[in-house]
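PROTOCOL LOG
Step 1. Enter all chains and additional molecules of the complex.
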Amino acid sequence: MSDRDIVDLLAGIVPGSKLDAIRRARPQTRDNIQASYEALFAPQDEGAVPLIERLALAVFVAGLHRAEAEHAFYQKNLVDAGADVGLVKAISHAAETNMAEGPKGAYPPGPLSQEDTPPPIWALAADVASLLGLRLAAAFRHAHMLVYHPRDASRQDLDVLLAAGWTTSAIVTFSQIVAFLSFQLRVVAGLRVLTKSTASRTAA
Amino acid sequence: MMSDKTIIQEGHEIPAAFTREELDWLNWLEPLAESNLTDRHWAGLVDKARSKSSYFMLLVHDPDILKSRTLADKDIFYNTKTGLPRAERELSAAVTSRYNGCIYCCSVHARFAAQFSKRAGDIERLLEEGTKTDIDPRWNAIIAASVALTSTPSAFGEEQIKDLRVAGLDDTEISDVIHGAAFFNWANRLMLSLGEPAATMDPK
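Step 2. Run joint prediction.
Step 3. Record the structure below.
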């Protein structure tokens, strides 16, 4: 009952604090954010997406968000899962060289076109691409779009993933991973600021 | 046999503006068929009626994450015993969708926000003018906080918390804004990348 979950650990929420009480007053939310994390990163069966790929995606996506603590957390899990140093370095390089800001992208032609913004450029050095392999390199390209310019996503992007060896079922899991992280990193970022602010008000 | 090919959706009208009208959503990958569902899949759908939705029947390829995501979603938006009124949780969902550019998600949650707040005119301005619109101090603070948290990297900080407090929100309500906006960063990315919106056919 007094166990801290992943959001508590990452956001710095301590047992007995005001934010701890706020989170525990919504057990269905709290428990299912944790269950979502476990479904993706401690799955009953890995199915179409091996754990190493799941964690590699998490490290990459946390990197693109500049979420330092979360990046370190997922990177440690990736290393503990047995990833080799070359892969870890390739992920860092892929994130660092493709850092951008979002949300960007284009709308269907029409009145919203005046709000279109150019998508960030995606590029991988040849040695990084080869360390990642075809499957992960295609996944990273897609994740980069989902993170920074999701409104540009098209059916053709799914064709690229299918051609790189991702099945329908694997694409569903993959999409949930990137989308869940987009949620989790924001819950943590928001609650971290709120818990600090609440603590400083209580102290004052 | 499962088909690992994308589905070309044709013959529909592509919505090119944000709207509160009901839209359809057309999948680009093949959903599971009801006849293929195991108990674990049914548990993942949570509500039996969701087997009639191509979106949920696509996501149920990975039933465990769908189940916990669905339960978190319902509690974040529908559990209003304490915290932010439903209208303002829907506002955070609509704002996030407007900012990320998910025309489908925005249509659903703009409709709910207008219905629960009885402020259709203000929601209409959000859709037309975008997230820089000026409504009133309380809604402006919720809109700005949702936008800051949706930006990559996150721009959410003390300033947003302060403005939410000045607008009258307590810490539970601020946590609700954080969860509502964060959750739609999850939903938008699935809806935008696994299918496309379509204008519903006028019944003639």
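Step 4. Note key features.
Chain B touches chain A through 69 residues (CB under 8 Å).
The first strand of chain B starts at residue 23 and ends at 27.
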